[in-house]
Amino acid sequence: MATTGPESVVRAYYELVDRDRYDNLMDLFAEDISYERPGQSPIEGRSALREFYESGRPLEDGSHEIHSVIVEDLTAAVRGSFTGKQHGEQVRFGFADFHEFENEVITRRYTYTDRDEV
């Protein structure tokens, strides 16, 4: 999957997450990625991020719908919704994600949702 520029990379991110393509997904992140979610400890480093996606993520069997992507300098802001399961329960919620880039890879990611934990 060829990706160039922050908007292409973040659109690829959601597609890969929804398809559980973690090998390809990890290629979008810097080795020292930091992923922050309110009220939860940051995930630091690509190996910890991979572990989160493979076994620690409370969301499953779902998909993201992107409503808008705004890119300014090296930051991409994404607003959308997720529909799927969380801990076996059907959920739908909105999210806002911010992805910071360096050299075409995501170096820092922040997620905000209208749920307590994702």
What tags apply to this protein structure?
globular, six-stranded mixed sheet, Nuclear Transport Factor 2, Chain: A, 25% helix, 3 helices, alpha+beta
Explain what the structure shows.
The protein is of the alpha+beta class and 118 residues long. It has one domain (5-113): Nuclear Transport Factor 2, Chain: A. It is 25% helix and 50% strand. The protein has helices at residues 5-18, 22-26, 46-56; strands at residues 29-36, 43-44, 59-72, 75-86, 89-102, 105-113. Strands 2-1-6-5-4-3 form a six-stranded mixed sheet, with helices on one face. A hairpin with a 2-residue loop joins β5 and β6 (105-113). The longest helix has 14 residues, at 5-18. The two termini are 26 Å apart.
Give the helix/strand layout.
Blueprint: H1 5-18, H2 22-26, E1 29-36, E2 43-44, H3 46-56, E3 59-72, E4 75-86, E5 89-102, E6 105-113
Parallel strand pairs: 1-6
Antiparallel strand pairs: 1-2, 3-4, 4-5, 5-6
Concise synopsis of the structure shown:
Helices cover 25% and strands 50% of the residues. The chain has 118 residues and is α+β, with helices and mostly antiparallel strands. Strands 2-1-6-5-4-3 form a six-stranded mixed beta sheet, with helices on one face.
